[in-house]
Amino acid sequence: MSRIYIIPGLGADTRIYKNIDLHDHEVIPINWIEPGKADTLAMYAQKLIDQYNIKPDSIVIGNSLGGMLAVEIAKIVPMKKVILISSIKTSDEAPGYFSFFRNVPIQKLISGKLMTSMGPMIRPVFGGMAKGDARVFMEMLKGTSPVFIEWAMSAILAWKNDIIPPNTYHITGDKDLFFDYKKIKNATIVKGGTHIMIFDKAAEINKLLKPILYQQ
Known about the structure:
Elements: E1 3-7, E2 26-29, H1 41-52, E3 59-63, H2 65-76, E4 81-85, H3 97-103, H4 112-116, H5 119-126, H6 131-142, H7 146-158, E5 168-173, E6 188-190, H8 197-200, H9 202-214
Parallel strand pairs: 1-2, 1-3, 3-4, 4-5, 5-6
């Protein structure tokens, strides 16, 4: 049995992992804490380490933003394994629109409160979801702190990293509209996988995770 920390993505909580099979392990959900306005992702990762007493020689799994934070955590606390799902592990893998929004920060004109109410508009960009999964998606987005969303959007765009921790595993989809799989190196590609494939491609992801989790 391994100790596994699971980190959700932006606009989500750890219910995003509801279809992922981790029942043989000690699973520790990482829920968002309020960030400092000037926090970088690295600074926020340290806060999560302190808040959850994240221990060395554990496994950390991160989805989307959670994957970026998983990398930052592993740079501070040595992890047995780092697993990214629908995420990026270095800033070189970031999509081109990151540069656009850094130079033309129109996202700052959209309040976090407005973002949490835009579920019906942004849901199609994430990919198809079963009815029950879509309901959870909407609930998670509505329940996300507007302060956290505003901070996270800026911190993600400002992220600079070129260090890949040892024993990093990366799973991404070829239909992800947020992170282009063609820019991501050394990843396992899920055919038809969208940004929300952790929901609708969970069976395939579980098959990929099993040998990773049990490999010594």
